[in-house]
Specification:
- By secondary structure, the protein is α+β, with helices and mostly antiparallel strands.
- It has one domain (33-211).
- Helix content is 24%, strand content 17%.
- It has helices spanning 9-15, 45-58, 66-78, 170-173, 176-183, 188-191, 197-200; strands spanning 27-28, 31-32, 101-104, 108-109, 117-118, 142-146, 149-157, 192-196, 201-203, 209-211.
- The strands form four sheets. It has a four-stranded mixed beta sheet. A two-stranded antiparallel ribbon has the order 1-2.
- A hairpin with a 7-residue loop joins β4 and β5 (117-118).
- It is globular and about 45 Å long.
- 38% of the residues are buried.
- Residues 79-128 are annotated as: Disordered.
- This is VRR-NUC domain-containing protein.
């Protein structure tokens, strides 16, 4: 399977420019795009993540990395283009600061009084910042909101082309994701979930897939 290359910060800056730069409106040909982000899906989150990740392993849709492919699809499903888009048309933000659903690549600031608070947008208060990377700020692959607050943290591991799977990030090894969970009133033992896509998902030959792990047993979004 193809493996995501090392992060290219220059490429990230081009694809996801700082929030102060001009951005497209949330319409195409005068027709408003209705975002799925206004409500939760009601699915098992591991099933939905596996479905998207398997699709991305089949076709990255031009994304630089597999995780970026998953991020793009989650933004299409859950974020609202009426709140602004990136130059490629991908939505920047959820419908509201309290909107439930997955939030890809949220940065958490450890250098504030209470520590590990989501970094907010400078132009849309309360919304997660759409600019990254921020030096020294952990950034899990997916932060999932439910009932208007952080509910679960997901970190995805894809198979490497030469064998094996992605290793843990430095922030993950240092326990930053567990500290985020603790700070937000979660249980890091069950609310920080690592998904090995090859091991934890059943990918179908024609795309899509579902979870085969019990890591999300009983969970509904």
């Amino acid at each position: 399977m193809p493996h995501k290359p090392a992060t290219d910060v220059t490429a990230l800056a081009w694809a996801y420019p700082p929030e102060g730069r001009p951005e497209k409106s949330g319409t195409q040909s005068g027709v408003r795009i209705v975002a799925a982000g206004a409500k939760a899906s009601g699915k098992n989150p591991c099933d939905e993540i596996c479905e998207i990740a398997c699709d991305c392993m089949n076709d990255r849709q031009g994304a630089q990395t597999l995780t970026r492919c998953v991020e793009n699809e989650l933004r299409k499903r859950y974020y609202d283009p009426e709140n602004g888009t990136f130059p490629d048309g991908t939505a920047r933000y959820p419908s509201t600061p309290e909107s439930d659903g997955p939030r890809p690549e949220v940065s958490y600031d450890p250098n504030v009084p209470n520590g590990y608070i989501p970094r907010n947008s400078s132009r849309n208060p309360g919304m997660p910042s759409s600019h990254y990377p921020y030096t020294g700020m952990p950034r899990p692959d997916i932060s999932w909101w439910k009932d208007g607050k952080l509910w679960k943290i997901f970190e995805l591991k894809f198979p490497r082309a030469g064998g094996g799977v992605d290793g843990q990030t430095r922030m993950q090894r240092d326990g930053a994701y567990k500290r985020i969970a603790e700070n937000q009133g979660l249980d890091p033992r069950k609310d920080v979930i690592e998904l090995d896509i090859e091991k934890d998902c059943t990918c179908l030959s024609n795309g899509g897939g579902h979870s085969k792990t019990n890591k999300c047993e009983g969970l509904k979004t």
